[in-house]
Design brief:
2 domains, twelve-stranded mixed sheet, 13 helices, elongated, transmembrane, membrane, Macrolide_Exporter_MacB, transmembrane helix, FtsX-like permease family protein
């Protein structure tokens, strides 16, 4: 009997294909919005979890601007702060001597193109000005060649360490990049080494970079731009103590009095996670509101379509009742039709939303995934919407008087 009801329900929907498709699309839009957003957010969430290795478990940064990764905070009110200068960074390192494992000074400029002979990268390479401690403090290992040395920094030599992605773009598999001359923003540098591939963090490639001596970068590219300082604590147990010592040393290096607040920011793994969670909550809330409104609208559409269907099929219902069809059978058929409409819309929204969310993940170099939890929730909610808004038309159909129904035309 249930099989017959299913066949009758699907035959009725197929008889009105255009109306069915339009109704299904209404549900699909609501499910699509939440699935697409949550797929992208889960991909970013996984990237955050793996990307925290870019700082390291025992590492933190001191910089001019706060860790506003995907946060609602603006940068405007921090613009008037004094830049953290190279001299202050060197003084900070002196004050922290023996209290940290590594202290790296760096500044970055994005959007550079790197060229070698007839080959060139896209204009999307990040050029870091850094000292000899940059690699150790930021978790970079040397694959070939050597790291920057204190002499490179002291004499501001035109040497560079390149990321593996830059190496792949400029040099063929058999070409040794060490010793080659590359051009970066009009200046020529000799490749001293190549970093081991690190992959992406927070959707950003960590291999599409060039590192040159910090004094040369400040003179040729950043022109006094604020530097950031990466500090690696000796151990996890001493992490907070190192942070406290670093904050005090930075205040001294900046010449702040006791009454003056910090005019620099602390960037830790925890601050990055908190910033992302705030962004995630805001986007998820917006997606839920949009999805709820779309699904309620789609539910009203399902109810209207089913009421129209009841009106059009009044004579059919009267015939079925006259030959002995029980009310429960009529009720089940119309509920199945409403459920089929909503479930088909939910399934379509899940497929399109998952695809859209993963396209966003691909664009930002994030991992692909299937948000099973949200898929199940979306299908359940769409089914509940179909049944809830299909109840009134179904009861109306089941409650028709067979004599009156047979008289309709």
């Amino acid at each position: 009997m249930n099989r017959e009801l299913l066949l009758q329900a699907f035959n009725s929907l197929r008889a009105n294909t255009l109306r069915t498709i339009l109704t299904v699309m209404g549900v699909a839009v609501g499910v699509f919005s939440i699935i697409a957003v949550m797929t992208a957010l889960e991909a970013i969430d996984r990237s955050v979890a793996t990307g925290l290795s870019s700082l390291g478990a025992n590492t933190f940064e001191l910089q001019k601007y706060p860790a506003t990764f995907m946060s609602g905070h603006g940068r405007g009110r921090f613009t008037n702060r004094r830049d953290i200068t190279y001299r202050e960074g060197l003084l900070f390192r002196t004050l922290m001597e023996g209290k940290a494992r590594n202290i790296g000074l760096q500044v970055a400029t994005s959007g550079a193109q790197v060229a070698y002979l007839e080959s060139a990268t896209n204009p999307d390479v990040t050029v870091f000005g850094a000292d000899e401690h940059f690699a150790a403090a930021n978790g970079f290992d040397i694959a070939m060649g050597r790291n920057l040395t204190g002499q490179d920094i002291l004499y501001s030599r035109n040497v560079a360490i390149i990321g593996d992605e830059v190496r792949e773009r400029l040099f063929s598999g058999s070409t040794d990049p060490v010793g080659a001359l590359i051009k970066v923003r009009g200046d020529v540098y000799r490749v001293a080494g190549v970093f081991v591939r690190k992959g992406a963090a927070f959707g950003q490639s960590q291999d599409n970079l060039v590192v040159i001596p910090l004094p040369r970068h400040l003179a040729r590219m950043s022109h006094g731009k604020s530097i950031s300082i990466t500090v690696e604590a000796p151990s996890r147990d001493g992490y907070q103590a190192t942070i406290d010592q670093a904050l005090g040393a930075m205040r001294v290096a900046r010449g702040l009095t006791v009454a003056e607040p910090n005019d620099f920011e602390l960037r830790t793994n925890e601050s990055l996670v908190a910033s992302f969670r705030e962004f995630q909550q805001t986007i998820a809330t917006g997606a839920f509101i949009i999805s709820f409104m779309a699904l309620v609208t789609a539910g009203v559409g399902i109810m209207n379509i089913m009421l129209v269907s009841v009106t059009e099929r009044t004579r059919e219902i009267g015939i079925r009742k006259s030959v002995g069809a029980p009310k429960r059978s009529i009720l089940q058929q119309f509920l199945l039709e409403a459920l089929a409409l909503s479930f088909a819309g939910g399934l379509s929204g899940v497929l399109l939303g998952t695809a859209a969310g993963n396209v966003i993940a691909l664009v930002f170099n994030l991992p692909l995934l299937l948000p099973w939890f949200w898929i199940v929730i979306s299908l359940l909610v769409s089914s509940v919407i179909g049944i809830s808004f299909g109840l009134y038309p179904a009861f109306r159909a089941a409650g028709l008087n067979p004599v009156d129904a047979l008289r309709s035309r």
